[in-house]
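Anyone up for a design puzzle?
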């Protein structure tokens, strides 16, 4: 890789040379085996052409072959950049050149996927496949997107080229630190834990992206800040179009009750560290949060991101489904790949039962599209290797596909019930403080008694309603204002008493209770309102 010079301020410069030969042994072995087994057409999906070129050149040298690189702007050249045929920029001419080439070689074709929509090019590739099978030549297509026409699906072997490993990112980071160790203008010192946090935050970035964001952090705050590095990942999420990078400012201090759930999450706070791997622990997999609307399920997902200092990705399953044949299946694979590329991360799926509604009748209603998308998702949920912690929330268990609830897909299933008196007291206190009022000026005990059967969200809304009433009268909000708002509101527990009773009955034997209160250790099936 060429020398990279970065200017941190008017007089601060540093340069580095990063070796890009560091590709995981598994990836090298996979491609090497395919080449040696004479697979004629290989498709590598990656943004990092240079790293692929370095790997292919090493494999070519080992096999006593030549690496020849093609692009539609430059034609053919060797690994050193020497032009071999600058006129063969047309894709058909390029394939003809490969056919006519008489010596053992590995051909790397950059961004060839747009040309594979041309029937003539498709036919030429099919002919080339037969030709290459009998010779020591391999044609490798390298592109950031996977687009294979149906005519070539059985002829092309696809290899996903993974993002840089922690080891390679560590080399990149060290290349930046070394020339700046004695510079008083920046602080490049890192403890072992800080270094791991910086490197983990850069996982999912290319080598170039990692170099740039490390430098950006030094420019902005004169040190390596994981928060700035994680911001770079937001751009990746945004471009996916399916996932949303969710900025969370919520903390567990803003959630009343749910002690069991909070304790469970706090214990797993260090679950993504290397020390946890050395101890023999797997990555935390995920949580299913089931409960009555307004009891803090979504709030908990947001608070986890703040507690664990991980990017929070909101996954709207509805965005997956498209009108073009195969688009939905491609979108779910892309969403999964994006979430994994920025891991460790938290993938939040709100009201998952609505996203996968109709799975059972999918073959009759949408030719099986929903069923295939759901199948791809739960298979990944069961078998995922990357540290993506999935938080799924649901209000209606009757709409949840039974396959989703199978053990192993989530670490735990928690049930969030209506708040107990102590939890309602905490919720009132939290929201009164949040709005700049003194708790001592309110009769919390009376409000707790009047709010039996109210969810946390409903309690917050009554306070807001009371404040609007007081504001319209140009005076300070009082306890009586909140009491009036409580009396005027009809809580969900009264509107949907039968449904909530059924949900509580279901949760008794199938889910872990999120709260430690005596009321919820022995839940009363009848809702008192």
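Challenge accepted. My sequence:
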């Amino acid at each position: 890789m060429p020398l990279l010079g970065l200017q941190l301020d008017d007089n601060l410069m540093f340069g580095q040379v990063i070796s890009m030969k560091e590709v995981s042994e598994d990836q090298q072995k996979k491609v090497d085996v395919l080449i040696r087994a004479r697979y004629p057409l290989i498709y590598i999906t990656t943004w990092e052409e240079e790293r692929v070129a370095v790997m292919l050149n090493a494999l070519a040298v080992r096999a006593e072959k030549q690496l020849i690189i093609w692009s539609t702007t430059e034609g053919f050249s060797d690994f050193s950049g020497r032009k071999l045929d600058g006129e063969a920029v047309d894709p058909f001419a390029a394939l003809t050149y490969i056919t006519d080439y008489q010596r053992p070689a590995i051909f790397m074709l950059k961004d060839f996927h747009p040309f594979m929509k041309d029937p003539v090019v498709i036919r030429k590739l099919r002919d080339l496949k037969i030709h290459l099978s009998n010779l020591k030549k391999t044609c490798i297509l390298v592109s950031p997107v996977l687009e294979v026409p149906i005519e070539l699906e059985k002829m092309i072997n696809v290899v996903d080229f993974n993002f840089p490993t922690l080891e390679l990112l560590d080399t990149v980071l060290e290349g930046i630190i070394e020339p700046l160790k004695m510079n008083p203008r920046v602080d490049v010192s890192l403890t072992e834990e800080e270094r791991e946090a910086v490197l983990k935050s850069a996982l999912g970035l290319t080598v170039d992206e990692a170099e740039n964001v490390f430098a950006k952090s030094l420019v902005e705050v004169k040190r390596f800040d994981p928060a700035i590095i994680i911001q770079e990942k937001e751009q990746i999420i945004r471009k996916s179009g399916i996932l949303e990078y969710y900025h969370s400012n919520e903390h567990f201090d803003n959630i009343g009750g749910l002690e069991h759930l909070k304790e469970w999450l706090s214990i797993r706070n260090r679950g993504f560290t290397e020390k946890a791997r050395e101890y023999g622990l797997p990555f935390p997999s995920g949580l299913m949060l089931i409960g009555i609307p307004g009891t803090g399920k979504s709030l908990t997902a947001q608070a986890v991101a703040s507690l664990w200092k991980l990017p929070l990705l909101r996954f709207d399953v509805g965005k997956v489904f498209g009108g073009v044949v195969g688009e939905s299946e491609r979108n779910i694979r892309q969403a999964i790949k994006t979430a994994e590329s920025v891991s460790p991360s938290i993938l939040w799926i709100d009201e998952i039962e609505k996203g996968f509604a109709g799975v059972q009748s999918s073959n009759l209603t949408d030719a099986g599209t929903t069923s295939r998308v759901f199948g791809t998702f739960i298979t990944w949920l069961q078998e995922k290797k990357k540290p993506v912690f999935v938080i799924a929330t649901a209000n209606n268990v009757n709409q949840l596909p039974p396959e989703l609830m199978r053990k192993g897909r989530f670490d735990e299933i928690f049930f969030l019930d209506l708040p107990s008196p102590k939890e309602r007291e905490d919720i009132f206190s939290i929201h009164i403080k949040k709005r700049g009022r003194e708790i001592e000026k309110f009769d919390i005990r009376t409000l707790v008694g009047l709010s039996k059967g109210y969810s946390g969200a409903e309690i917050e809304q009554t306070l807001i309603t009371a404040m609007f009433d007081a504001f319209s009268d140009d005076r300070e909000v009082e306890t009586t204002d909140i009491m009036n708002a409580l009396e005027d509101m009809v809580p969900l527990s009264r509107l949907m008493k039968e449904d909530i009773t059924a949900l509580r009955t279901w949760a008794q034997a199938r889910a872990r209770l999120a709260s430690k209160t005596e009321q919820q250790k022995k839940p009363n099936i009848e809702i008192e309102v």
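A detail worth pointing out: The first helix runs from residue 25 to 36.
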